[in-house]
Amino acid sequence: MKTKAMRPSTLIAMILVMLMNARPAFALDQVTITEPNHVIGYLPLYLAQRRGFFAEENIGVTWTTIETGSGPTNAILTGQAFAMLGGPEHNAYARIKGADLRAVVGVLTRSSVYVMAAKGQEPVNRPETAAEWGSYLKGRTIGTGAYGSTPNSVTRFVLSQLGLRAKDDVQLLEMPSNAIVAAVKAGRIGVGVVNEPLVTQGIRDGIWGEPIYNVPAELGPYAWASVNVRADTILHQPLLLERFVRALAKALAATYSDPGATLTVAKQEFPTMAPEVLAAAVKRCLADQLWSKDGFIEPAAWTMAQTVVRSAGLLKQDVPYADVIDMRFVKH
After folding, report:
1. Are strands 191-195 and 113-117 parallel, antiparallel or unpaired?
2. Longest Cα–Cα distance in the chain
3. Residues of 257-278 as b/e, b for ≥16 C-beta within 10 angstroms?
4. Cβ 204 vs Cβ 276: under 8 Å
5. Phi, psi at residue 330, to the nearest 5°?
6. Strands, sheet with 191-195, edge to edge from the N-terminal-most edge strand
7. Torsion (CA) 32, 35, 40, 41 in degrees, nearest 10
8. How are beta strands 225-230 and 83-86 bridged, if at all?
9. Distance separating alpha carbons of residues 203 and 216, to the nearest angstrom
10. Is 123 left (phi over 0), alpha (psi -120 to 50) or beta?
11. Is the pLDDT reported for residue 142 higher than 70?
12. How far apart are CA 101 and CA 90, in angstroms?
């Protein structure tokens, strides 16, 4: 039986359709991203790498940890890194000094810290008003992060919202997060401001119960951590950024849609952490929607982040959303 020959015009039309629907091929791009530390809060990025979403876009990612305050900004300004993970307030600090950085995709779009009280020092009845919270916290010693860190700024902002002043009304002990847990356990302080997995570890060890103040819920949208690049990277490497953001957006969606796979990646990234602690920590992050679902940073999220650092005295002037955040690559 003879096979009917395809007309040349039909064949050409089919090829054109295939070419129109095909993504352009890219050579592998290797990029370096700085992170201030390796934590659960950045899990969607690790998921993007481990589940092959970056690889699908022909992107290879290398992580480098830079803990110093200005180190990540200097790394991308000098070309040592493609991007940095951190709050867009760092873009505002750089803007005031004459540099131009932009957040191109959001990762953590809620505050990631919680207020914990030592066992036996919780409020008898949960305070409902700012005055009641102020009455409970006044005179206490509160453990929080180092001055200039986001947890410290959030602590100071929350206190101001409750009508309290650091030094005058409460004593702040500024220290690394692990030291806060140890200080509460030793009875040196009664209240600590920490994030996961320390929240769950403290619950498991009987140091404290559930959070007494859910900061993510209370503050709402908050540009806590984003992927930030130089503005000229947006100008000169738009296709690379488009692919990068597409891969991360896919990972953010998968973080919520497949919690089992998310936990698997968490176990790969944090193999020494107790499995039950890791599972509970990831569950809390998902329940409180700490991670963005699509990478978009709302203007309200920047308003809150800017208000917090302005309140802490770290940012001396308002910086418009468009000067620190560029969402052109995010499909929202």
Report:
1. antiparallel
2. 95
3. eeeeebbebbeebbeebeeebb
4. yes
5. -95, 130
6. 113-117, 191-195, 141-144, 171-174
7. -110
8. antiparallel
9. 18
10. beta
11. yes
12. 8
The answer to whether residue 112 scores a pLDDT higher than 90 is yes
Tokens of 63: 């992580």
SS3 192: strand
The residue whose two tokens read 């979403």 is 53
- Whether the model clears a pTM of 0.90, i.e. scores above it, the answer is no
**Which tens digits make up the pLDDT trace of 43-93?**
999 999 999 999 999 999 999 988 767 888 889 999 999 999 999 999 999
- DSSP count for the chain of H helices, then E strands: 15, 9
Q: 1-33 burial string, b = 16+ CB within 10 Å, else e?
A: eeeeeeeeeeeeeeeeeeeeeeeeeeeebebbb
Model confidence over 155-165: pLDDT tens digits?
A: 999 999 999 99
d(CA 171, CA 166): 6
Tokens encoding 123 = 């409020």
pLDDT surpasses 50 at 99: yes
Helix (H) or strand (E) holding 172: strand 171-174
What are the φ/ψ torsions at residue 154 (nearest 5 degrees)?
-65, -40
Phi, psi of 289 (to 5 degrees): 55, 50
- Residue 94 gets the label, from left (phi > 0), alpha (psi -120 to 50) or beta, of alpha
Mean pLDDT (the chain, rounded): 91
DSSP letter for each residue of 66-99: --SSSHHHHHHHTTS-SEEEE-THHHHHHHHTT-
DSSP-H helix ranges across 138-274: 150-161, 177-185, 198-204, 215-219, 231-236, 238-257, 259-269
152 in Cβ contact with 215 (< 8 Å): no
